[in-house]
Amino acid sequence: MRKVLLSLAVLALAVPAYAADHYNKKVKVGDQAPDFSGIPAVAPNGEQTSLTLGDIKEDVVVLVFLANHCPAVLAADDRIIEFTSEYKDKPVKVVAVAVSNADEDKLPGIKNHAKEKKINYTYGHDETQAIGKAYGASNTPHFFVLDKERKIRYIGAMDDNVMNETKVTKHYLKDAVDALLAGNTPPVEETRPAGCGISYAK
């Protein structure tokens, strides 16, 4: 029953694109990205580490909010891994954070999931949920692309069909990152994040 309810919560419709500041009311494209530091995390080699924005040296940062209990995240897992592999030799750093306090989303669950899926990006858990609130993350997966000055340049979905990769026709995240690497403005700056809603403690 829990899985059924979670599936019903997933927004799997086509993802429309809009000009910046349409969906996220906490931050907008062009804003300085909220800082974060010391978030307990699991590195790609399985060792425990921490996530600190200031420690990232790459020109482009892709921050994605995930939750391992979410069907939309499970559907996008392989795509995120493939994306990370595609940019491993470029100045792009992919990092993920869960803010859910479900067992699957806490650090031990993340470590198990990372081992099972051979996840190739650093994946942390923020039990305070502060990073999610700061970025206005509303769904999982929810992507934020930061440029070299750590300004937000893209907010939203990875592509236009979170649940079915075979039906994807638009690659919003890839297009945004490629544009920044070329010194250009992303062609689409904000899309609706499709996936499971994030529950925040009051």
Automatic annotation (TrEMBL):
InterPro entries linked to this entry: PRX-like1, Redoxin, Thioredoxin-like_sf, Thioredoxin_domain
**Which residues are the signal sequence here?**
1-19
- Coiled-coil parts of chain: none
Which parts of the sequence belong to the Thioredoxin domain? 27-182
Does the keyword section mention Signal? Answer: yes
Tell me one Pfam family matched here: Redoxin
Q: Which Gene3D superfamilies match?
A: Glutaredoxin (3.40.30.10)
Q: Which UniProt keywords apply?
A: Signal
Q: Which GO terms describe its molecular function?
A: oxidoreductase activity
Q: Which domain of life is it from?
A: Bacteria
The name of this protein is: Thiol-disulfide oxidoreductase ResA
